[in-house]
Amino acid sequence: MQHIFVHRPMISIKKVEGRKDLRAFIRFNYHLYKGNPYAVPDFLEDMLETFDRKKNAAFEFCEADLFLAMRDGEIVGRVAAIINHKANKKWQTRNVRFGWIDFIDDEEVSKALITTVEQWGRERGMTKIVGPLGFTDMDPEGMLTEGFDQLSTMSTTYNYPYYPQHMERMGFGKEVDWVERKVMVPTPDHQADMQKYFRVAELCMKRYHLHMRHFKSHKEVLAADNGQYVQKIFDVINRSYSELYGYSEMNERQIKQYAKTYLPFLDMRLLAVVETEENEPIAVGITMGSLSYALQKAHGKLFPFGWWHLAKAIYFKPAPVLDMLLIGVVPEWQNKGVNAPLFTQIIEVAQKMGFVWAETHVQLEDNEKSQGQWAHLDCTIHKRRRCWQKKIDN
User: Fold this and answer.
1) Cβ neighbour number for residue 119 with a 10 Å cutoff
2) pTM for this one?
3) 239-250: per-residue pLDDT in tens?
4) What is residue 246's DSSP assignment?
5) Which of 173, 51, 64, 169 is nearest to 109 (CA)?
6) Who's near 248: CB < 8 A, 6+ residues apart?
7) Which CATH superfamily, name and number, covers 12-179?
8) What is the CATH number of domain 183-386?
9) How far apart are CA 100 and CA 80, in angstroms?
């Protein structure tokens, strides 16, 4: 009997060096998911800045390298190897992160990518590999394990169902899981327990002498409190998220970077801020109309025509979906009903603007405070994503 051997070209790993390699690294995700109705591509221009060591403030406390998996001269996978020294110091860990990981359905490819990150981390004294994680919590985190038939968002990533299968076969286990909810905007004939938020909000505001802060434009936000108000808003987020898994506090340069990126896209009606009698912010809700469909139509590029799809979604014909980007209450004001005024404003504005449902940001499945705040609304968990972990063999 004659045996026929099929030669398979070896997988090689190429370190990203130079702008040409970087553009190829970024665009591989777009090519892998081209035509997929659920994947939302990153903007090429945004990602170029994310990986720019001079422009991304996270490189002040992170080190990273990017790698491409090659076969026969073609890219078949990508991964970022990251060490967040600030997070490792805070949480007393020696973790190397893998992020922005994508690969074809070939275990040789996924194993080559993960092995590269393990070796990179081992050389730098790391003892565990975790991911997918970015530089900080402001980057996409987690690998989708449920909800493959649900539209992704601007701030999260999509992946094919075979991804978690590869991770399990490589011996990875669960580090933490996040969930995302689809929350229906209450309507006159379907209000769920919306009125409970309104009653709690009214009592809370009176009892603690609180008030809402409103803005008409992003320029007004930037100018408020002698230019310090944006810092105060993100201080609320820093303090609210400080004890969540792997969180590393945003520094002043990062805050300016995020304000520059996201503020121009925000409708100020959807920025909810609760302040004390002394005008100090203690709770923040940052939401915006979904840009998922616009990003798909833009094909991941702002120029030459991507900007038009973005502008149309923001100013002329917004999608029926509201993305809840960040919601936070400083620790000393938690469990006092302060989130109710946030939801009251968001619900009322969402109703007036015609949004049908809202997409929550990723939330740790065991964060009872965060999970409980949706109890009085009509919602369902429609996505789950996982951070994987494995010890690095010496």
Assistant:
1) 14
2) 0.90
3) 999 888 888 888
4) T
5) 169
6) 61, 84, 86, 87, 90, 136, 137
7) Gcn5-related N-acetyltransferase (GNAT) (3.40.630.30)
8) 3.40.630.30
9) 6
